[in-house]
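REQUEST
  id: r-88c1
  op: predict_structure
  target: BHLH domain-containing protein
  payload:
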Amino acid sequence: MEGNHEDKDVSKLLLKLMEGYSDAAIAPLSEFSPSKEITINAEAASCSRKRKPSPQIERDRRVQMSGLYATLQSMIPNLLHKATRVKIIEETIAYIKELEECLEELKRRKAAAIRALRLCNHPNASSSVDVTVSGNVAFFEVSAMVRRGLVKEIFGVFDKHRVEVLAAGVAVHELELRLTVTALIDGNGDDVGAAERIKTDLLTLLF
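RESPONSE
  id: r-88c1
  status: 200
  body:
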């Protein structure tokens, strides 16, 4: 008890001596209180604990990552059971690219099938004949839906009009035929009229 009284007396004496002292370089006496020091130490220890993840959290994270890698591995065909994580990632990326290419191919086939269906329902919708005449040379461009014997029938029209075919080209894309013909026309001075008559016969053939 006497020790406590002595401590109190000392504290009172110090407070009396420091009363009115305003030097900012020295903190107030209350700052040196043992209770405040304990509070600061407790807060520092709490922050330190927050910064360091617990072993259980780290174990849970590793288990979750292992599960994700196992799921990826099960989705990739022909991947070895003991494949490394790097190998799993590489094969996953390659497999995704392969699926994307397959998807694009399926979209292309679907579009071609839809277009073919439309052409079947309206076979003459995309048929056309264009002709350009320069002197006694005419350039024909024929577009039509593919059908058996069509090319032979088209050249039969040129043969009927007794024109000389100088060059010809045939291309087929998504069931559509495109045929170009460069022909020498002898229209007895009316080469444009002769080319138009050939065009009329070609249109009759297509429609």
